[in-house]
Automatic annotation (TrEMBL):
PANTHER family: HISTIDINOL-PHOSPHATE AMINOTRANSFERASE, HISTIDINOL-PHOSPHATE AMINOTRANSFERASE 2. The lineage of its organism: Bacteria, Bacillati, Bacillota, Clostridia, Lachnospirales. Residues 23-344 form the Aminotransferase class I/classII large domain. The keyword Nuclease does not apply. InterPro entries: Aminotrans_II_pyridoxalP_BS (IPR001917), Aminotransferase_I/II_large (IPR004839), HisP_aminotrans (IPR005861), HistidinolP_aminotransfase (IPR050106), PyrdxlP-dep_Trfase (IPR015424), PyrdxlP-dep_Trfase_major (IPR015421), PyrdxlP-dep_Trfase_small (IPR015422). It catalyses: L-histidinol phosphate + 2-oxoglutarate = 3-(imidazol-4-yl)-2-oxopropyl phosphate + L-glutamate. This is Histidinol-phosphate aminotransferase. GO terms for molecular function: histidinol-phosphate transaminase activity; pyridoxal phosphate binding. Gene3D superfamilies: Aspartate Aminotransferase, domain 1, Type I PLP-dependent aspartate aminotransferase-like (Major domain). The modification N6-(pyridoxal phosphate)lysine is found at K208.
């Protein structure tokens, strides 16, 4: 007997971090502990009910123009989507159509293999070295595409622009996607490489540094040709990805650069303080350039710490796979007060 279930696209979905209903200290999904700019609030209240009658602008012109101007590019170099997850998924669909495998690290954003499975893209993961660094020689030779976050997640380890330029130069046969979800927290961006190479797509998000995870805004910068291909796929899938309220909110965030930079500096300062405290408590971690720290205790088991923190209303993230990161916890940076409470509770657990 034939069964309809034989023709279902079966996938194992991505598991996002928990969003508890109760008020907790939430250090588990790399959200920003500070609200977005007050100008974002004004922009949202400024959207009239009547304007919601109509479909949003499918070209997302106001937001694309603001992002293009901010980075000094033309509008044709910018693509926007419903969070960078949407932009990345569209990038996989558009650019990764070779029979050769797409390459990415073994320890990285755990959505990449999910999209590869969903779209039936062949892929090979390349193990990071013992210091969680990407081994450049793993990315030599012809392939179907490359995707790497910089800084990498969940390790927080970053590589300089020159590292990526070598990879991009060596791969005219495929598109290289650099996922810069955390680059605003103090590291070099590869955006300028998109002027020189037409096969690189740099993807950014408003979710972390701009504190707008709830709005869902992601974008990509690339050559005009690359962005045209990406847009053609998007318009073949869903014309109205960005809603009217979100478009207005996104523009307001871009326009308040002073507020944005000040909050990013606040997070960086708290991160550096937290690093010192964690070291004193017997944790080791690769040097993080992002808004989280990926840490392992010298003697106390990660799952035990995770559970004990949770009992105390503090949520961090633990990944059981791959096995070599099972001893680590990913700790997002909260406010100073949240991190002081976190360190105080943590010191009782690991003492
Ligand atoms: C958070 C994150 C994303 C997705 O962010 P969006 O909220 O969808 O914009 C993409 N890549 C990495 C590495 C991330 O950590």
């Amino acid at each position: 007997m034939k069964n309809w279930k034989d023709n279902v696209r079966k996938v194992v979905p991505y598991t996002p971090g928990e969003q508890p209903k109760a008020k907790v200290i939430k250090l588990n999904t790399n959200e920003n502990p500070y609200p977005p700019s007050p100008l974002v609030g004004n922009a949202i209240s400024g959207v009239t009910l009547d304007s919601l009658r109509k479909y949003p602008d499918p070209a997302c012109d106001i937001l694309i123009s603001a992002i293009a101007k901010y980075h000094g590019f033309d509008k044709e170099n910018v693509f926007v989507g419903v969070g960078s997850d949407d932009v990345l998924a569209m990038g996989f669909l558009t650019f990764f159509n070779s029979n050769e495998p797409v390459l990415f690290p073994d320890i990285t954003y755990s959505f990449y293999d999910v999209w590869a499975e969903l779209f039936r893209i062949p892929y090979v993961v390349k193990p990071l070295d013992d210091d969680f660094k990407i081994i450049a020689s793993d990315y030599e030779g012809s392939c179907g595409g490359i995707v790497i976050p910089n800084p990498n997640a969940p390790t927080g380890v970053a590589e300089p622009v020159s590292f990526f330029e070598e990879i991009i130069k060596a791969h005219p046969e495929c598109v290289v996607i650099i996922d810069e979800a955390y680059v605003d927290f103090g590291y070099q961006s590869c955006i300028e490489l998109t002027r020189k190479y037409d096969n690189v797509l740099v993807v950014r998000t408003f979710s972390k540094s701009r504190a707008m995870a709830g709005n869902r805004i992601g974008y990509a910068v690339g050559s005009k040709e690359l962005i045209k291909y990406l847009s053609d796929c998007k318009f073949s899938f869903n014309s109205y990805t960005m809603d009217t309220i979100t478009l207005a909110a996104g523009v307001a965030s871009i326009e308040d650069d002073e507020y944005f930079k000040a909050r990013v500096q606040d997070v960086i300062a708290t991160r550096e303080w937290t690093k010192g405290q964690l070291s004193e408590l017997g944790f080791s971690f690769p040097d993080s350039k992002s808004n989280f720290i990926f840490a392992k205790h010298e003697s106390v088991d990660a799952v035990h710490i995770f559970e004990e923190l949770k009992k105390r209303g503090i949520y961090v993230r633990h990944f059981s796979k791959p096995e070599r990161i099972a001893d680590y916890l990913r700790i997002s940076i909260g406010t100073d007060e949240e991190m002081r409470t976190f360190i105080a509770e943590l010191s009782k657990i690991v003492k």
